[in-house]
Amino acid sequence: MCGIVGLLLKEPSLRDRLGELMTPMLVGMTDRGPDSAGVAIFGAPAPSALKISLFWSHGAADWNGLSKSFSEKYPGAHTFTPNGQHAILVTDVSPDDVRGWIKDSAPQIYLLSVGRSIDLYKDIGAPAEIVKRYGLDRMSGTHVVAHTRMATESAVTPAHAHPFTAGEDFCLVHNGSLSNPHLVRKKLEPLGISFVTDNDTEAACRFFEWRLREGDDLSTAVQRGFSELDGFYTFLMGTDKELLIVRDAFACKPAVVAEADDYVAIASEFRSLAHLPGIRHANVFEPKPQEVYSWKV
Questions:
Q1: Residue 138 falls within a domain, yes or no?
Q2: Is residue 89 part of a domain?
Q3: Are 231 and 179 in contact (CB under 8 A)?
Q4: Cβ distance 267 to 127 under 8 Å?
Q5: Is the pLDDT of residue 24 over 90?
Q6: Does residue 275 form part of some domain?
Q7: Which helix (H) or strand (E) holds 112?
Q8: Could you give the residue numbers annotated as active site?
Q9: Alpha-carbon Rg for the chain in angstroms
Q10: pLDDT per residue over 101-119, tens digit each?
């Protein structure tokens, strides 16, 4: 059992309040998953470089030392913006080179996400603790995808927490369980697609991102997933331009959508939507089985 949360702000004047509006949604899902939580925030794109979200997995984070070491290897303009165990690196160094450098020089670092618009924070602990730890209630942006986890099939670590990412500016959260993640991995690994955890959700995330790279739009990729991914699921996905939700054929994992003039809000239970402005006038509904719902920024 896990809790999913999504919020897309259509009204630009609300975007400075994204974290403020998201926080009660995520905290409201605590009973569904107190083990770990994560938040992917999409905002204004970096103008000419990629943003890379990093997590220092153990020991005291020394982002200044890491920044100096990185600049020695890759001279140029780089910025590290630390936030506790997390940091956002803005750089024109390729993600593959960053991954290689981390593997060789800083194995205590997890690379969480890559993109021009996405910042990702996830950690062990209850949602309220993680929001406070990283100041997520003060974040701004256009839309957010978040999750609070009750682990059922893999370890409780920041790497196993949701959202999962693949490629650039793409993330996925999942409530449910897949019965065939190993078959999905067996299909993708010969294509050069690497995995960093044994979590079933990562298999779904990398499957959909592979289909995006093959030319599908996100809705088409999800349609393909109906025949490739076996199990129970509600998937919520975000890109820099889109928020999408889909449930499996049995729709046994809950989800509620509230669509208003100013926003689209999604959660596993209505109680996480009740505080939103204008909720009484929103169109509130449960997504139908195997029907894809998406909204553009």
A1: yes
A2: no
A3: yes
A4: no
A5: yes
A6: yes
A7: strand 109-115
A8: 2
A9: 18
A10: 999 999 999 999 999 999 9
